[in-house]
């Protein structure tokens, strides 16, 4: 629990970094890398992964289907950690699942998938997720749109936008720093 709390604290500190020129991504990478170096033994431990997903499931159940915004943020942050641990050797799956957890439906689906072998407490959530519209978040404006209307970045094939203007604005500010890295990761798979 201490390592999970430390990760959440680290991510909250990242939000305080200045992002005027897109440099936050360049500042965050060494911070996260240091966390993973300091916790290598946990990152490789399947019990730690299971704990993270079980804790997120508990928070989901208490959050009244993600209506408690502060719990939703913690769930998102810890799911990100759990996914990075669980799928660190399969970058394509990691990219997809990280994209999924940007929506409520995706969070539920990830929790169902990651806990179904040892827990049935997400069965109700699975039913709820099936009734929800398939949506995705635009990486530029962070708003939800129907999944089939989102445009995929031609460079990295990883991030999605609701229109070309949003894509251009996000490119100038942030994505140009990550696009090449995402492309390299995708090519390795």
Automatic annotation (TrEMBL):
Question: Is-annotated flag, keyword Zinc-finger?
Answer: yes
Q: Does the keyword Metal-binding apply?
A: yes
Q: Where is the MYND-type domain?
A: 138-179
Keywords on record? Metal-binding, Zinc, Zinc-finger
- Write down the species: Fragilariopsis cylindrus CCMP1102
Which protein is depicted? MYND-type domain-containing protein
InterPro entries for the chain: Znf_MYND (IPR002893)
Give a GO molecular function annotation for the protein: zinc ion binding
């Amino acid at each position: 629990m201490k390592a999970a709390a430390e990760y959440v604290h680290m991510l909250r500190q990242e939000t305080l970094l200045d992002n005027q020129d897109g440099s936050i991504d360049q500042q965050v990478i060494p911070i996260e890398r240091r966390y993973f170096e300091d916790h290598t033994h946990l990152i490789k431990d399947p019990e730690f992964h299971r704990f993270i997903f079980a804790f997120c499931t508990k928070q989901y159940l208490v959050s009244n289907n993600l209506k408690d915004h502060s719990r939703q943020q913690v769930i998102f942050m810890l799911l990100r950690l759990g996914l990075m641990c669980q799928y660190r050797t399969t970058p394509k799956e990691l990219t997809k699942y990280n994209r999924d957890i940007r929506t409520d439906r995706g969070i539920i689906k990830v929790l169902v998938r990651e806990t179904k072998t040892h827990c049935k407490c997400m069965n109700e959530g699975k039913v709820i997720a099936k009734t929800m519209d398939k949506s995705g978040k635009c990486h530029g404006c962070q708003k939800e749109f129907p999944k089939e209307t989102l445009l995929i970045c031609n460079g990295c094939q990883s991030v999605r936008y609701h229109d070309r203007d949003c894509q251009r604005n996000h490119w100038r500010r942030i994505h140009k720093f990550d696009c090449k890295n995402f492309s390299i990761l995708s090519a390795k798979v």
